[in-house]
Amino acid sequence: MEAIGHVRLYWVVALLAATLTTILVTWLLLEMLPSSQRREICSAVVVEVVNISSGRVPLYGLLEVDLNVTASYDNPFDPDQVNVTAVFELPSGRKMTVPAFYYQEYERRLVDGREFLRPVGDPYWKIRFTPIEVGAHRFYVEVRDRCGNVARSKTLRFEVIPSHKRGFIRVCPYSRYLCFDNGSSTFFVGHNVCWYGPRGTFDYDEWFSEMAASGENLARIWMAPWAFGIEWEELGRYDLAEAWRLDYVLKLAEEEGIYVILCLMNHGQLQSGGLTGEWGDNPYNRVNGGPLARPEEFWTDANALELFERRLRYIVARWGYSTHILAWELWNEADLTDGYNPEVVVEWHRIVARYLRELDPYKHLVTTSFANPSRKPGVWSLDEVDIVTVHRYGPQSFADIAGSIAQLVREGWSEYGKPVIVEEFASDWRWFNKPLYYEDREGIEIHNGAWSAIMAGSPATGMLWWWDNYVHPYKLYSHYAALAAFLRGVDPHSSALEELKGEPVLPGDLEEYLGSLTIYPSLGWARPIASVFEVTLSGEVGNKSQLSYFIQGRAHPELRSNPAFRATSPMAVESWSA
């Protein structure tokens, strides 16, 4: 019995050794093969719809679909490893393909003035879809893994019902204004609120509440390395906590009726020095494992372009649903990056904006921005760029804020025939050494910049830059409230608004017109129907037939008149009556 037991043990050990040897030899052989000839071992692919937010969705409302995906992948943010998409069939027969995204739920807490996020549950896949047609819809979800294996969910249905929602924002036909899908248009009133402080998203609870109460409906937000940026800690892998924060803020904007210009890149990421340089920490930097030796290579490097387009895909998948994203802004002040080459930057914008337009199923507007408004970048002439933006700061040559902003808006429209938005302005670009705006506690520059942009033909107010150290702490929202009240109910596109041009006309020879003017009344025994009379430069009196011959006393107060004369003259006017 013992001999038999030893034999069995021997064969078990021998079999195990042979198995391990086979695995090792197979692995070595695979490693020796070129990557193009290898065949990866992938598990079965499975996709299941586990939840639909509603079976009845308002037109331009939000449908969310939660998924259970089983597939082989190391990086859920790389569509070459795992590609999850939904195909929606609309009542018209049109099909829309919407990419899914990897999602993690969080809950937030404010502790000692600082926001903390805690993950809730495990991450999973999600789809967000905004219907653009009324009626019965069908959809299915498809998953493809890195081995080429494909799985498809069963087809599901939901109904889209009419709503009063206005839809996505477009450029109005042949116009400098912006329209919604339903054809209506509005003016946009707002200022920058680009990032949060230690309080995180709790800042936006306060800011957006104040803005909405003051009639503001426009904000600008950056996806910066220190706030809302999703690709900074590790190249090609996205920060789900920052993505959740942006989810929260966009949803809050929708609830408060605020539209957002979402800026995807800021100049400091490709700056190696100065006050705002962040190149040393950029994951695209070769020192940090990225593909680029110098910042300026970002614009031409194929690997960098592929990585950025992959990030765009995630951004569109997660936030493209929102009708409250006014525009994707590709760059903030691209001309401040190291080694700036205008021609190269124009070509990059052509490629990326075209890709974004093809990728985005809802065709949001696309723009970008530059620091120097006098450089006339060729980007504004691209068909792929929808809005011209302006950034203008003092203290140099910006004493007349209203006049300068109005001129920039008019020039932009005249030269490019596109809507012009003054995205950033302030009397002073500095935040140190007592900048000029600290002396303006009444917010005069806010008033001048906001009103002048609108009156020059912009669809939006000039957007002041300093929000957390000026507008909010000094409670200067009243300037926006006054302008919003003035514009309320005005549809700029359907009103066919045009710039009112007026020039003062003075006589060539003043002496010809100067001297005494005698006005002879002509109204008899009757009650005058006018009491204010215009006197022109030439001495003509409007409606003088209502000037009475008689000065009435107490007997006939009903016939009494107290005429007033409104005169236009280049010199002081004296008057008397007889």
3D architecture notes:
A hairpin with a 2-residue loop joins strand 6 and strand 7. The chain has nine helices and 21 strands. It has four domains: 2-34; 46-161, Immunoglobulin-like, CATH 2.60.40.3880; 169-487, TIM Barrel, CATH 3.20.20.80; 508-578, no CATH class. It starts with a helix and ends in an 11-residue tail after the last strand. The model is unreliable at 35-39 (pLDDT under 50). It has helices at residues 2-32, 201-213, 240-256, 302-319, 342-359, 401-416, 444-455, 467-471, 478-487, and strands spanning 46-52, 56-58, 63-70, 82-89, 95-99, 101-111, 114-129, 135-145, 150-152, 156-161, 169-171, 178-180, 190-192, 218-222, 259-263, 325-329, 365-367, 388-393, 420-426, 532-535, 564-567. It has 578 residues and is α/β, with parallel strands linked by helices. The radius of gyration is 33 Å and the shape is elongated. The strands form six sheets. Strands 2, 4, 5, 8, 9 and 10 form a six-stranded mixed sheet that branches. It has a five-stranded parallel sheet with strand order 13-14-15-16-17, covered by helices on one side.
**Which band does the percent of strand residues land in?**
15-25%
Name of the CATH architecture of the largest domain: Alpha-Beta Barrel
Taking the sheet with the most strands, its summary is: 6 strands, mixed
CATH class of the largest domain, named Alpha Beta
As for the CATH topology of the largest domain, it is: TIM Barrel
| Helicity, as a percent range | 10-25%
In N-to-C order, the SSE pattern is HEEEEEEEEEEEEEHEHEHEHEEHEHHHEE
From the helix content, strand content and strand pairing, which structural class follows? alpha/beta
From the N-terminal CA to the C-terminal CA, the straight-line distance is 146 Å
Integer average pLDDT: 89
CATH superfamily of the largest domain: Glycosidases
Residue ranges: pLDDT <50 for 5 or more in a row? 35-39
Number of helices: 9
* Overall geometry: elongated
What is the CA-atom radius of gyration, in angstroms?
33 Å
Number of domains: 4
Number of strands: 21
